[in-house]
Amino acid sequence: MKSKIYCIFALAALVMMLSGTGAVADSATYVSGASIRVSMISQDPDPVKPGEYLELRWMVTNYGSKPLEDVEFMLAADYPFQLLGTSDGVKQLGTIQGHQKGEEGVVLYYKVRIDEDSSEGVNKLYLKYRYKGMEDWSRLEYFEVRVRSMDAAVVIDDVLLEPARIAPGSTGKLNIKLKNLADSLMKDVNVKLDLTLESIPRSATGAESSILFDALPFAPTTSASEKRIPSIKPGGTSILSYDLMVYPDAASRVYKLPVIITYKDEVGTEFEKNEIVGVVVGAMPDVYVVIDSSDLIAGKKTGKVSFKFVNKGVTDIKFLDVTLKETADFKITSSNEEYIGNIDSDDFESVDFAVYLGNNGDAKEGSVIEFPLHIEFKDANNVDYSNDLKLTYSIPTAEEKGQEQSRSALLMVMAIVIIVAGWLTYRWWDRRRKRQQKQAAQKAQK
Questions:
Q1: Per-residue model confidence (pLDDT) at position 331
Q2: Among 38, 140, 217, 412, which residue has the fewest nearby CB atoms (within 10 Å)?
C-alpha cells in the first residue's frame, strides 16, 4: 500500500517539473501550454578563420498548443565574436504560433566577425530568450563554433645542407626546419621529399614517368624520404634530417626539390602544402696546369711557351682567364692575358705566350726559368675561384734539343715500321687463307 502511495507522489512531482518555465537547446520544454525548441541550422563557413565573417542560423519552433507572443532572442557574443547589425544582440521574432512541426519554425539569423587575433579551436557562445509573460531572460546551453587558423600555419623556416654542396657520387644531409606560425597546436605533421616528382601533374606514359623519375639525381640512404612529427606547439619549431646520395653522373647545378607537407589543426581539418627547397650539387674544381710545349732554346732570345689546363674534377669550369706575370728573367712580347672560357670535366685547353729572354745568351749552357701564372674561373654554380701558380721549365741547349728531336724521330720511325710490318703480315695471311679456300672448293667439285 505504501509503495503505491510513493508512486503517486513521484508521478505528481514529474508532472510539476514538466510544467515549469524554460527552454534548452535541441530539446523541448513545456511552458504553460507552449513548447519552444531552438536548434542550430548552420555555421557558415565552418570552420571559420580569424578575421572572417560568420553567419549563424537557428530554427526556433513552438511545439506547444498556445502561441508565444513578443518573442525576442539575445546573442551573448564575447571575444572573439564581434556582433554586426545590432549593438545589443537582441532580435525581435514577434509571435510564434503553436503546433509547429518540421521546418515551420522561425529562422533566427546573426552575422558576426571573428577577431583577427583569435586562437584556433572551439569557441562557445549562447542565446537568451524571453517572451510575453516572462520577467527575466532564460538562457540556453552553449553552442560551439569552430575557429581555424590560416592555411599557411606550418612553414619551412630554414634549410641547411651539410655539406653546403654535395659532390656527385657522395652523400650529404638535408636539414629542414619547420615552424608553426599559428597560435594553436598542429598535429600529424608529415613531410615528404618528392624525389620522383609525383606531385607534378603529368601523363602516365612510361617514357615520361621514367624521365621524371630520374630528373632529380638523389636517393635516400640511411633514412626514408618521408618523415612524421606527432605535433608542433604554437610558435614552436622542429627539424627533420634526410640522408641523401647524389648520382655519380649528376650535373653540377642547383636542383629544386619539391617538399610535400601535410598536417592537421586542433579541430581535425587537414592541410597540404607544396614547397620547394634548393639542393646544390657540385665539387671543388680540380685544375691541373703544365707546360705543354715550348720552342725556347739556349742562346735564343725569343720563343713561345704553351700552357695546358686540364680539368680533372667532376664539375665543369667556366670563364677561365689566365695572366702570365713578367719577372727579371723574361718579358712578354704577346698579350700577358688570355681568355680560355669553359673547360668541361675530363677535358683540357691550351694557351700560348710569346716571351723574350734577356739573359739567355749562351747557346751551350741550359738554364731553368719560372713562369708565374694567375688564373681566375667559376665552377658550374658560378662560385668564383682564383689561384697563383709557378711553373718551372728547363731551357735545353741545341744539342739537347737535337737529341730530343732524334729520339722523337726514332720513335716515329719505329712506329711506322711496326705498322708496315703488321700490314704486310696481314696481307700474307689473307692471301694464304684465300688460296686454301679455293683449293678446298676445287676438291669439293671433283
A1: 94
A2: 412
C-alpha cell at 209: 614517368
Residue 9 CA to residue 359 CA, distance in Å, equals 135
Give exposure, 340-349, as e/b (b: 16+ Cβ within 10 Å): beebebeebb
Give the Cα separation of 101 and 104 in Å (integer): 6
156 contacts 143 by C-beta, under 8 angstroms: no
Is-contact 380 282, C-beta < 8 A?
yes
Q: Report how far residue 413's alpha carbon sits from residue 423's, in angstroms, rounded to the nearest whole number.
A: 15
Which three cell numbers, joined as nine digits, stand for 311? 680539368
- Is-cis flag, bond preceding 234, omega within 30? no
The confidence score (pLDDT) of residue 16 equals 36
CA proximity to 187, closest of 121, 119, 122, 270 = 270
Dihedral-angle region of residue 262 (phi above 0 means left; psi in -120 to 50 means alpha; beta otherwise) = beta
Give the position of cell 737535337: 402
Q: By the 8 A CB rule, do 112 and 85 touch?
A: no
Is the overall model pTM greater than 0.85, yes or no? no
Residue 206: strand, helix, or coil: helix
- Length of the chain counted residue by residue: 446
Cβ-based neighbour number of residue 3 at 10 Å: 6
Q: Check residue 29 and give its pLDDT.
A: 39
Location of C-alpha cell 647524389? 246
Work out whether the CA dihedral 103, 107, 111, 112 comes out positive or negative. negative
**Cβ(263)–Cβ(154) below 8 Å:** yes
Q: Report the chain's C-alpha Rg in angstroms.
A: 45
Q: How confident is the model at residue 103 (pLDDT cuts 50, 70, 90)?
A: low
Residue 334, number of CB atoms within 10 A of its CB: 12
Q: Print the SS3 string covering 210-267.
A: HHHHCCCCEEECCCCCEEEEEEECCCCEEEEEEEEEECCCCCCEEEEEEEEEEEECCC
Phi, psi dihedral angles at 200 (to 5 degrees):
-90, 125
The pLDDT tens digits for 425-446 are 888 888 888 787 777 777 777 6
Mean pLDDT of 130-158: 83
pLDDT at res. 144: 85
7 residue type, one letter:
C
